[in-house]
Design goal:
Helices cover 40% and strands 11% of the residues. The chain has nine helices and six strands, in the order ββαββαααααβαααβ. The strands form two sheets. It has a four-stranded antiparallel beta sheet with strand order 2-1-3-4. β1 and β2 form a beta hairpin.
Length: 244
C-alpha cells in the first residue's frame, strides 16, 4: 500500500490522497473531527476517524510546521460509498451504552435464558438424563450444593451452554443486532464500522464474555474506564454497544 493512500471527507467534500501523518495533524489541529470519515486502500471502506487505527494518535514530531491546510479535492478519490457524505452535518454523534443500561439488558436476558433453561430441564428429565439428580432430591439437606449439581451429566451442561451460545450469537448477528434484553433496553451491538456482527464475531464475543469477563468482574467494569464504554469482551471482539 502506498503511503499517500488516505482520503478524507469534510462537509460532503472528499480530499486527498495524503499520508497518515497528515491525517493525524489534521485531527490534532481540529480541522478533521473524530466523526469525519477517512478511506485508504487497505480498509476499502469509508470509516469514522475515531474508529480508524492510529488516525487519532499524535503525529510524528517534525521541525516547526504550520497548521496544515486542507488538501486539494482529488478527482480520483475512491468511488466507494461514503456513509456520511450526504448527511454528515446532520448526523447525530454515536451514543455508547453505559454500565447500568447494559445491566438492565442482562437482567432481561437472564429471564429469557431461564425460560429456555427450564424447557431444556424438562426435556432432559423426560429423556432420563436427570435420574441421578432426582434420586438425590429427598436427601438434598444432607448434601452440599456441589454434590447435588455434580450429579448432573456433562451433556446437560453442554447443551445448556449450546443454547446460551446460539441465543446470543444468532440474535447479535441478526437484523436486530441485539438480544431480547438489549433490544428492550434500546441497545444494539455493532463492529468498529458500525455494521452488523458476523456470526463468528458474535460467537467470539460470547466466549470472552462468559469465560473471561464473567469470571473476572473487571472485564465488565472496564465499561467505566474508557470513552467508548467497551467491556473486555467488546475490546477483544472489536465491538461496541450503541444506543438505538
Amino acid at each position: 500500500m502506498s503511503e499517500k493512500g488516505y482520503w478524507y471527507g469534510i462537509q460532503g467534500v472528499r480530499y486527498g490522497p495524503v499520508p497518515l501523518d497528515e491525517i493525524q495533524r489534521l485531527v490534532q489541529s481540529g480541522q478533521l473531527h473524530s466523526t469525519d470519515y477517512i478511506w485508504n486502500e487497505e480498509h476499502q471502506i469509508w470509516t469514522r476517524v475515531m474508529d480508524f487505527p492510529r488516525a487519532m494518535d499524535p503525529p510524528p514530531p517534525q521541525a516547526e510546521f504550520p497548521v496544515p491546510e486542507l488538501a486539494a479535492q482529488d478527482r480520483d478519490a475512491p468511488d466507494s460509498k461514503w456513509e456520511g457524505q450526504e448527511e454528515e452535518e446532520s448526523e447525530a454523534p454515536v451514543e455508547y451504552a453505559g454500565l447500568w443500561i447494559r445491566f438492565g439488558a442482562f437482567i432481561i436476558d437472564a429471564f429469557a435464558m431461564g425460560f429456555l433453561g427450564m424447557i431444556w430441564f424438562f426435556i432432559a428429565l423426560a429423556l432420563g438424563l436427570l435420574d441421578n439428580y432426582m434420586a438425590l432430591a429427598d436427601t438434598a439437606e444432607h448434601l452440599s450444593l456441589h454434590e447435588i449439581w455434580s450429579s448432573l451429566p456433562w451433556i446437560y451442561y453442554a447443551v445448556a451452554t449450546l443454547i446460551a451460545w446460539l441465543y446470543e450469537a444468532l440474535f447479535l448477528s441478526s437484523s436486530w443486532e441485539a438480544t431480547l434484553g438489549k433490544r428492550a433496553m434500546g441497545i444494539c451491538v455493532v463492529d468498529s464500522q458500525g455494521e452488523r456482527l458476523s456470526f463468528a464475531r458474535a460467537s467470539l464475543r460470547f466466549t470472552i464474555k462468559n469465560f473471561i469477563s464473567g469470571w473476572f468482574l473487571f472485564g465488565y467494569l472496564l465499561v467505566l474506564a474508557n470513552e467508548r464504554k467497551q467491556a473486555l469482551h467488546d475490546m477483544v471482539a472489536g465491538t461496541y454497544c450503541e444506543k438505538l
